[in-house]
Structures are given as structure tokens and as C-alpha cells.
Amino acid sequence: MRWAVAPGREGGAVLCPLGADGRPAGPVRREPDLATAVLSRPEVDRWVWRCTTDVYRPLLRAGVRVARAYDVEAAEALLIGHEEGQAGQPRSLAAAWARLRGLPVPDDPPPRTAQTQPSLFDPGPVPLPAGVDPFEALLEVYAAQVARTRRARHPERLRLLLAAESAGTLVAAEMAAEGVPWRADVHRELLAELLGERYGGGGEPRRLAELAEEVSRAFGPGVRVRPDLPQDVVRAFAAAGVKLGSTRKWELSGIDHPAVAPLLEYKRLYRLHTAHGWAWLRSWVHEGRFRPEYLPGGTVSGRWTTNGGGALQIPRVVRRAVVADPGWRLVVADAAQLEPRVLAAVSRDRGLMEVASGGRDLYADLAERSFGGDRARAKLALLGAVYGQTSGDALTHLADLRRRYPAAVGYVDAAARAGEEGRLVRTWLGRTSPPASLEPPEEAGLPQASAESTYGPDAPARARGRFTRNFVVQGSAADWALLMLAALRQTLAGGRARGVWREDEAGMRARLVFFQHDEVIVHCPQEEAPAVVAAVQEAADRAAQVVFAGTPVRFPFTTAVVSCYADAKED
Fold first, then answer.
1. Are 167 and 275 in contact (CB under 8 A)?
2. What is the DSSP string of 277-341?
3. Cβ contact 243:251 at 8 Å
4. How does DSSP classify residue 107?
5. Strand ranges inside 109-242, DSSP E
């Protein structure tokens, strides 16, 4: 049974039951309290609402959790890409309603933030035209989305993707409410250790000033260089007879000059100061918790992003401040070689599936079977196939891989050709690439143009081919990760697959607190850690069975039970 729900006036709720076709199956009801209205209906299998941000966060503040939801705006983003090849178009309820009526589609507002209290500067939802009832619009758009899903080529896969994306929004909201345990005192100590005191109590850190002086001295008497300004650095090297194309680490590292070492150290510490320094600590860590503003599906491939906070780029040194509460532990779990395993599953290559059904080290198994035990060569070949590395040794190894695993390499080759020809590609569940009219996004994990391929009339086509080659794999991995998160969340909630409950009624005290791409962290009492480790692998197995049914591919996790995040693994 599904019910639609929306916040009413003064904390109330508007709701009604829905039929299998998505249309109302009963009268619209208005009740005085949102949390009570939801709690009083434990029989509801899935709640349908406009946006998880607007409905679930108030429920979480009231201590109420639901098993399943359907986020209409998240679904619209996927459907508009799937049906019309227009991924990235406005996704709001107002935009979806306008499309149904053939009216001008309003732009989306800036991303909403995860404040615990409403902000005067929060833009709020995109308004509907005057006289349009928001709840009636919700019902109309949802029914249309149900019909659109049924018309898809693989409706069962698309339906699963929509459910997974909405489950991700629930996880994101819960993790933002829970927060990552964070020791502000430890963070301040490591900043003082690495950066030194700040001049004037809040100015430039002493160590950065010292390094800036070292850099300037390296260029000779009377030369002043601002290491934080790339143009200053490029000019200084040019005056010294060294031509630089950029100030990136890989380019600087190849230069023999006394300014290089202090400059690289300055850049490292400057990033720490600006990205996770004292200002970051004041803004993001409160009451012992860091609460990132997760944006599920924030990238075109389905990977998550955050709205500020840098949660997905926490440097190893800063992880020293991520410390479990007394008597608790962090279970840090990483999916081993996720994307190569996904390639095996989506391509249905018999040989590669057999390799991916083995142990934790897929590259070692591949090397033993096909590359004379040379793990480095096997890894280079497989990643070359996924990321489109087609020069040097990678090209030779890719040719070897193509002979041994033709279906796997053929799968990504076909995606690359589609991209070069301006066609769309999809993940296994149906997430769709953006149209060729848009530039391939510079997204973490997706391949960027190499120097030798950025010129010539066909350079844009080659760039898009590299993007679509990886999209079908990375996007399918993101879809699998959503199902893994949903399964893990269900286990931690005592196996609840439907219904609603109060937070203190959850099956375990363990809580999901962090997720990025192929890594998840659960904060749990020490005695629950073994059960959490088992739950993570069980969730991975269940997700594989649901998404890639009929394949033997395994998705093993490497887990560590630690008190401090920095102790979990080496970079």
C-alpha cells in the first residue's frame, strides 16, 4: 500500500492512499501533525512525497523513520533523462507539472542545505502557478511517472532504479541527521602541529608564511612570489628559464629547482588550511558531529556529491579527528575493485565473470589466469578498458585483454562508439547519460582528455567516447551502491522492509554515518561491530543478486573495525 503525503499548514499533513496506477484510491485527508499522521499508518509500504528534504527531515527531528519512500523530484530527474535524453533538466515538482501541461518549465533553485533549523535564506520549493494546489499537483505528477515507467523498455529495471534513488535520499537525510563523530579538539591540535600558530590570532599560519619565504628565496634576492597565486609561480619559473604549463603537482615534480620542494609543501598545507582549517571546523563541526549535506545523484553518473563541507575529500591527516564515541567503534568498509567487477556483471563476459567470482583481489586472480602472474599488467589492462587508456603500454595490454575477454571489452567499446556518434548510453538499470550537446562533465572518477587527444576536429567526439565508455560502468556501480546502502540500512533497522517506527525502536544502535562511491562507515557500539561487518557483506551480496541477477560475480568488502578513521587503511 502506498500513500502520498505533503506537509500542511502549521506542522500538519495532507495525505491520501494510492492505487497501483498511482492515482488516488481514497479521499484526501488533512491531519494536524505530520509525524502522528505517518506513525499512525504502519501498514503503508511506501510513502510518496515531493522531496525527501521537505518531508523526511521534519520526521527525523520528531524521531520518526520510514522504511521506504518515493521521491517525486528524484524520480523526475531520472525519467526526463531516460525518456527524452535530457539529463540535467529541471526536476522540481513545478517543472514536472509544467511538462505535463506543455507549459514553460521553471528552473530549479540552488541546492537546498541541511540546516537543522529552517533558514530565512532557504529558497524553498519552486512555486507552482497561482491557483494550483501543491498536493493535487503531486498526485498528478506521480500518476504520470508511474505510467511513464511502465512504458520503458525495461520497466522492472527502471522501477528498481527509481526505488534505489529514493532509498538513497532516505540514507542521505539520516546520515546528515546522525553526523560523523568528530573530535574538534583533535582537529585543532593537528592544525597547530602542521600549520603552527596564526599571526594575529586569525591570520596566515606561521608554517605557510615560512614556506612562502622559502619559495621566494629560491628564486633569488629581491624576488617576491605568492605561492597561492598560480600566475605568480608561473612567472617566477619563467624568469628562471623554466616554462610551466600549470602548477600541478605532477608537472612541478619533474622540475629540478630549489623552489619545488617548499612550493609542493606549501600547496599541501594551503589545501589543508583552506579546505579543512579553522574556518571549516567552526562552520561544520557542532556538538561533536560533522554533518555533510549529501546530494544523492549529484553527478550525472549517479555518484553522490555534497553541498559544501568537503565530506568526499577528507585528507588522511584530517581523519585523525574522526573518532568513535567512548565504547563505540567505526566499521569502515571498502568495496574491492568495484568497477571491474561491475564490468564483468554488466557485460556478461563468461571469462571475466569467472575471475570476478573468486577472492578479494580480482587483479591478482586475473593476472594468474591471463597475464602470467603480473598483477600490475593485469590491473593496467582492465582499468585501461574501463577508462579508455589507449596509449603506450595500456594499449598493448588492452589488446591482450580484448583477446581473452571479448564481451567485456566489447561492451565498453560499444559505449565509446555510441558516445563518439552522439548517441546516449545507459547504466544497467537505466540511468541515462546527458545529451551530446552538453560538454562531458569533469567529474571525479571519469576520464579526462589526455594531452594527445585534445586537438583535432574529432577531439570532442573522442572526449565524449571516453566519457560514455566509463559512464556505463561507473554509473552501474553507483546504482549497485544505492541498493547496497538500502539493504544495509534495512538490516541495521532490524530487518524492517516496510512500515514506520520511532528511532529508539530500531533493531540495532548502529548507524550509517558516511558514504562515498565505494566506501561506507557505520558507527556502532563495540559489541555490535561483528554483526555490522557481517551485515555489510550481506548487503553487498543482496544488492548483487537484485541488480545483476544470474551472474556469479561477487562484491567483497574489506572492513576494518577501528576507533579512529585514520587507522582504517592506507591511501
1. no
2. SHHHHHHHEETTEE---EETT-STTS--EESSS-GGG--TTGGGG-BPPTTEEEEEEEETTHHHH
3. no
4. P
5. 180-181
Q: What share of the chain is helix, strand, coil (3-state, %, to 5)?
A: 50, 15, 35
CB 96 within 8 A of CB 105: no
How far is residue 35's CA from residue 12's CA, in Å, rounded to a whole number? 9
Block residue for cell numbers 561483528: 530
Helices (H), 337-437: 338-347, 350-356, 362-370, 375-387, 392-404, 406-420
Interatomic CA distance for residues 531 and 431, integer angstroms: 33
**342-392 pLDDT tens trace:** 999 999 999 999 999 987 899 999 999 888 999 998 998 898 888 877 666
Other CB atoms within 10 Å distance of the CB of residue 43:
10
C-alpha distances (whole Å) from 415 to each of 337, 475, 546 are 21, 12, 23
Q: What is the DSSP letter of 514?
A: E
Separation of alpha carbons 513 and 332, rounded Å: 10
* Residue with cell string 597475464: 371
Give the lowest-confidence range in 79-83, 88-92, 177-181, 447-451: 447-451
The answer for residues whose C-beta is within 8 angstroms of residue 545's C-beta and 6 or more apart is none
What is this structure's pTM? 0.91
CB 42 within 8 A of CB 499: yes
> At 98, which helix (H) or strand (E)?
helix 93-101
